[in-house]
Amino acid sequence: MNHFVSVADVPDIPALVSRALAYKNDPYQDVTLGERRRIGMLFLNPSMRTRLSTQVAAQQLGMEAVVFNVGSEGWALEFEEEAIMSGNTVEHVKDAAPIMGKYFDILCIRTFPSLKNREDDYSELYINQFIKYAGIPIVSLESATLHPLQSFTDIITITEQLALQGKLDTATGKPARKPKIVLTWAPHVKPLPQCVANSFAQWVNAWGEADFVITHPEDYELEPSFTKGATITHDQDEALKDADFVYVKNWSTFNDYGKIYVNDPEWMLTNEKLALTNNAKVMHCLPVRRNVELSDEILDGPNSIVTTQAGNRVWAAQAVLSELIRRK
Amino acid sequence: MNHFVSVADVPDIPALVSRALAYKNDPYQDVTLGERRRIGMLFLNPSMRTRLSTQVAAQQLGMEAVVFNVGSEGWALEFEEEAIMSGNTVEHVKDAAPIMGKYFDILCIRTFPSLKNREDDYSELYINQFIKYAGIPIVSLESATLHPLQSFTDIITITEQLALQGKLDTATGKPARKPKIVLTWAPHVKPLPQCVANSFAQWVNAWGEADFVITHPEDYELEPSFTKGATITHDQDEALKDADFVYVKNWSTFNDYGKIYVNDPEWMLTNEKLALTNNAKVMHCLPVRRNVELSDEILDGPNSIVTTQAGNRVWAAQAVLSELIRRK
Amino acid sequence: MNHFVSVADVPDIPALVSRALAYKNDPYQDVTLGERRRIGMLFLNPSMRTRLSTQVAAQQLGMEAVVFNVGSEGWALEFEEEAIMSGNTVEHVKDAAPIMGKYFDILCIRTFPSLKNREDDYSELYINQFIKYAGIPIVSLESATLHPLQSFTDIITITEQLALQGKLDTATGKPARKPKIVLTWAPHVKPLPQCVANSFAQWVNAWGEADFVITHPEDYELEPSFTKGATITHDQDEALKDADFVYVKNWSTFNDYGKIYVNDPEWMLTNEKLALTNNAKVMHCLPVRRNVELSDEILDGPNSIVTTQAGNRVWAAQAVLSELIRRK
């Protein structure tokens, strides 16, 4: 593993899941591994769980994590090649990134999409420029189109739940039978990136151990290269039937990019809808708009595993960082 | 001690004072105590001394302190139960707090009052919701109505001064005779919380080792449950007479909540007024508006102990954190 | 060395350069030196390289670095003596600085000039007030008129380049023959401080091992006390002739203070101009406005050493911090 920006960087998902769960069992087992190593954490956008869980993971590996909020502590970066920088951007990534490569062993970056220009966002220019110029491993803390630490956490969490339910083949680390996993769109008050949905689809498909269904209203189709392999339906009730896991998430439109079309509150998951499932565990990446995306009754009920899921962010980050350190 | 949000959390004030002074004497004596422990420090509002002194205290206990500025690095939290989150708040404390409980061993929080709705502020909803949902010890870095780390520091500082003056019974750690302590209101340019005054009153009363007088102009009465036990007077000169310690602080009105009524510059402490006292030591929590709240001549004069007091913030925080670690 | 705010604080420049290069060769050789020591890093203005390189340097010395963004995490400081603080400033440096002196072993401060009032800026009131009141060593992370960590880095970088070229007398650590060093003004889109130019001039002059030329358009004269000893010319081509090092930097006017007069794009360094030099190495403190201050062809070409230079910021900071620790 040279970088961690997409599932394509991971040669063996179940092996990485095993490592993460081993850290959960014994957090400080590799506390000397990161000695005299540093990660830089660059935030072009806000973050809570990703920020904190990565700091915790670094500490448990004995590494120093240095946080830098690019906007408020520094200045606007330029990402376009050959730019004549007479505008608002103060420093080009071509100049900033190689210096990060001198100060740190691993560079972690969060950068959101504009939601204004699909082609630009889906080119992943920002994170790709850091890969191109930093000269050290890059870890995505969520980029314009993907959120791999979240999705890796999701696979860890599903695996862990299956193990708790006695449904995991412990020899292979794979499900004894494929669980039905449903990704369902949910309403929201403002247009959100497609990252979490894209990335979850990408990881579940790459993992290949699920009967995977995506459901959303018309007009909310996702980028096909990420969803390919999943069953896609506009009928939420049909999708939820016999589900083992329901992943709830809002996203804005992909085709007519970054818009909210229908925002039907009927799409919010309730206990009534949960009754259609196979007593499914309910997941969400957080933050969640209560009683808009997800009802209190679900979030406060016995089927929600969102806190466990968010807690697992630490072990995902720790497994990824440890892989990148060992690589060097 | 399960939390530290009020004097009510402290079973034995003199014992905690002794521990703090022991740390002042030997800062690193418990440097292994906090190994592999982490505190999260959440700032919903700005902070300098509290922030820095707590970070220093954590380091001296061998702990990692992770700072998170909720507003600028994250997003607005919701605290109301059953809220339909279609407004500006992005995440409910019910979801955020338990995750902090997974990432940290102790959670420290600063949250100011609105000064708009007294009932809301005095319900201490924010910090109480963290206590309810985080599942780990909560330390107040100043809340809507109290500032316990400051007030604990104030008792430490008074105790230390009495010891320096040979007026402390070293066997009990208590004053040989009760010093006269005066809390006096001072002018300011904007409406401030009542926290420091409430909390100082609460701690001096709980400590029970002082002749305690509070003086302020009419209309600046504080919440009686905090001041009960103190003598209250509108005559500042009368109050200052023979005082051993004068604590200077502005606060806004409590009854007609959050207002500035009279703002008479005559209430600013001067050397002329100090002459009424028993050569009193002058205290202030800082930041202080020079020549508005307190004159240069006092702050730069021999009776001011505000720097010593602010320095003692470290030992207060260290004593509290060490108690909370030992508890676990 | 008691502070580090100007070249005047450095008794022996080549010795400090040697120490920095020794750290570059073996970064952790003094990792126990800073044990149980802390630096506070106060930012009144944004910073990237200076911030990160100083944190890295502190870590490599085994010290804790505590960052505090004064504006966003705290509040506005007052620097004028005898101020009646009824305006926007919340805390006086007379009160804040001595407390920093209690919390930290070394205090590092970044503070920019206003560019509105030359006399005020050149009085260096802010950093001098910290020196006056903190009671601990002060390190400038760039002040109103100087940027000594940058300039020290620049001397390190020049020395290192000369060594690579076999042009350094290894016995003395000094050049075998004086290299020609040219500081050239460059265009920019907004008025910038004179700090980097002032400071570079001050250090090259104090170092005394160069044939030093400064070139800029009319009206961009710098403060003579810093430039004294350099040849000053308005003819850039003449200046560049046979140069071994070209330092490119924009600054605003000094006499009619803080203005942009001519902003002729012809002053941007290009390969055509570089051809006039002795195959000069090109330096810049960064951030750089590409294709405004410096062309892509130069920055991406073989003569640019800006990344090496920025990387050397770590070793400069580490040498300075280690000197200040040893002093205590």
UniProtKB/TrEMBL annotation, chains A, B, C:
Family of the protein in this entry: Belongs to the aspartate/ornithine carbamoyltransferase superfamily. SOTCase family.
Keyword Amino-acid biosynthesis belongs to the record: yes
Keyword check for Amino-acid biosynthesis: yes
Domain Aspartate/ornithine carbamoyltransferase Asp/Orn-binding: 211-322
Binding site for carbamoyl phosphate: 47-50, 75, 110, 147-150, 285-286, 313
Domain of life assignment: Bacteria
Reaction(s) the record says it catalyses: N(2)-succinyl-L-ornithine + carbamoyl phosphate = N(2)-succinyl-L-citrulline + phosphate + H(+)
Pathway: Amino-acid biosynthesis; L-arginine biosynthesis
GO biological process, one term: citrulline biosynthetic process
EC number(s) recorded for this UniProt protein: 2.1.3.11
Record keywords: Amino-acid biosynthesis, Arginine biosynthesis, Transferase
Binding site for N(2)-succinyl-L-ornithine: 142, 188, 249, 289
Record organism: Flavihumibacter petaseus NBRC 106054
Function: Catalyzes the transfer of the carbamoyl group from carbamoyl phosphate to the delta-amino group of N(2)-succinyl-L-ornithine to produce N(2)-succinyl-L-citrulline. Is essential for arginine biosynthesis.
GO MF terms held by the record: amino acid binding; ornithine carbamoyltransferase activity
Chain ranges of the Aspartate/ornithine carbamoyltransferase carbamoyl-P binding domain: 3-160
Protein name per its UniProtKB record: N-succinylornithine carbamoyltransferase
